[in-house]
Amino acid sequence: MERRVLIAVFLSFLVLYGYQALFVPPVPPASQTSATSTRQESRAQESAAVLSTDPTASTTEIAAEPPLVKGDLTEREIVVETATVQAVLSNRGGRVVHWRLKKHLDDRGQPVDLVPSDVPQDQPSPFSLRVEDEGVTRRLNSSLYSATGDTNGRLDATANPATLVFEMQDAVGVRARKEFRFEPSDYVVAFSVTVVQGDEALNPVVLWGPGLGDIGSTAAGGSFFTGNYVQPPQAIFYKDNEVTRVSAGSLAEQPLQEGQFRFVGIDDHYFLAAALAPGQARVELRELTLPGAGETQRQLVTQTFRFAKPPQNVRFFLGPKQFDLLKSIDGELVRAINFGMFAWLVLPLLSVLKWLYAYVGNYGTAIILLTILINIVIFPLRHKSVVSMRKMQMLQPQLKAIQDRYAGLKVTDPAKQKMNTEVMNLYREKGVNPASGCVPMLLTMPVLFAFYSLLSQAIELRGAPFGFWIHDLSQKDPFYVTPLLMGASMFWQQRITPTTMDPAQAKMMMFMPVVFTAMFINFPSGLAIYYFTSNLWTIGQQYFTNWLIGPPAAQAIRPPAEKRLKSAGAGRTPGAEPKAENP
Fold first, then answer.
1. CA 20 to 30 Å from 99, out of 39, 105, 509, 582?
2. According to the model, what pLDDT value does residue 8 have?
3. Phi and psi torsions of 180, nearest 5°
4. Where is 370: in which H helix or E strand?
5. Per-residue model confidence as pLDDT tens digits over 101-140
6. Residues 395 and 426 sit within 8 Å (Cβ to Cβ)
């Protein structure tokens, strides 16, 4: 039974590895566009953008653009400060150019910006607009809007909600008004827009442009077994009580989504940009792959929103996928976090982990304390398992004697059933349950997988240091110290644990620590800390149980001739002569 459980565990890891290898989106091929041609194209696009917006440019196209009746004369940026976000908006088109998260840093130590930089000039920024008339679309996105609500280019929304309004009107009757209402601390902005052409009110499409802009946009790949896996941006929407995720590479098959959405947008490993409860809407999502640093590429997703009517106070969330935060905004928004099939176990583990962190101030220490709590809970089961395995170990000579008596029979022989009956009678007589030695091992496996999901998905552990050389518990140990310690402790644990396997099988199973060490080399360092701590606890409990129940008693099995002699004499009365047998 113990061998089967260990083999099942090993096969489970192989299945997970195969799933990741087959179904994780492959890394796109490296771009063939040279850096020089990319820079030349960017310069050409920048020149075209300047010509299309500079009022002093002497071209026929610029002269054809109607002058503004209402708007600004110079381009400027407005910085909006909330408790969690620094948003930068431009009065050219009244759109967002930066959305920086103050509490989350990138690998350079700078606030994560969810609006990607260095994208082609023809790509729209968030909250750009599009209508059927291309000329009107161009004016809506290139005109210099007048801005109200700010003071010298700044708007403070750190303590109370604040509103920023952009307005423009040209000489031929095109009018537009955009309103952004910023919340102080929940990464939410409410957006309203009104566009009128002459006497006709238009229902513009809201453009988002490429997203998201954090580290997840680097399509460097990775997997469950190679470590450091970062999920690239993908489409995500909640409709008909079901969350659907569509990888960027699969969007070409079905780019349009329509219906009543609870939320819809783009997410990556740790962040989300989505419209919240937009009602009936039609959303178009498409893949955009751009050159990145070196040989890597940036995998982004663009999205556009067409609402049933011009959006008024439609709320957009642009922030981290933090469970408590999402729950405070919308109870169903927490489904944006992909904790997988063990979400039912991840959530209580995460709650306890955060509770411990509030006291100790270090997530690595909190993981160790949580591991101890888990092992205290399963202490009685593990103790019962060790006692049961000790009894099974003591029964091995008797079990082997029974098996030897039936060794010459084929598996299909009906007499083979008698062996199973004798074995079960022996178990019943000695009060041994052969499955009880495997239960604690099975119970710890869901916790192990839940810990993996927690450490790889919970943003609370993103960049969380433990100390010494471990600066991020969600990433692998850079010097492989914790995986090696985990493997050594697992080897030690197997050496002192009672086993019912024959010596050849026991030697084969001693290879398992090597396999687990190889796998844990690329697992999150927090997971290696959890398993190493659990192994140390198990080793200590094994020594305690051995001391408590004492050494195993020696079991002597009488040879078959002795047993037959005793059986033959059991029916005689003392002093009686044995009866002569018939010839």
1. 39
2. 53
3. -115, 125
4. helix 363-377
5. 999 988 788 899 999 888 888 899 999 999 999 999 999 9
6. yes
- Pairing state between β 188-197 and 242-247: unpaired
Minimal CA–CA distance to 281: which of 301, 265, 300, 302?
A: 265
Which among 472, 442, 471, 470 has a CA at the least distance from the CA of 456?
472
Query: In this structure, are strands 128-130 and 146-148 parallel, antiparallel, or unpaired?
Result: unpaired
Q: Do the Cβ atoms of 93 and 143 come closer than 8 Å?
A: yes
Q: What is the pLDDT of residue 58?
A: 38
Closest CA to 164 of 125, 192, 126, 124: 192
Helices (H) and strands (E) counted in the chain, each on its own, are 15, 19
Do the bridges between strand 314-320 and strand 234-239 make them parallel or antiparallel, or are there none, so unpaired? unpaired
Give 491-513 pLDDT, tens digit per residue: 898 888 766 555 666 666 777 88
Q: Average pLDDT of 250-276?
A: 93
Cα–Cα distance for residue pair 12/1, rounded to 1 Å = 16
Ranges of each domain in the chain: 65-333, 347-549
Tell me which of 2.70.98.90, 3.40.50.2020, 3.30.70.120, 2.60.40.10 is the CATH number of domain 65-333. Answer: 2.70.98.90
Output phi, psi for 129, to 5 deg: -125, 155
Report the distance separating Cα 467 and Cα 578, nearest Å: 82
Identify the sign of the CA torsion 197, 199, 200, 202: positive
Q: Please tell me the distance from the alpha carbon of residue 431 to that of residue 434, in angstroms, as a whole number.
A: 10
- Count of Cβ atoms closer than 10 Å to residue 323 Cβ: 22
Q: What is the pTM of this model?
A: 0.76
Tokens of 399: 């079990």
Residue 24 CA to residue 247 CA, distance in Å, equals: 9
Amino acid identity, residue 440? Answer: P
- In this prediction, residues 322-340 reach a mean pLDDT of 93
DSSP code at position 453: H
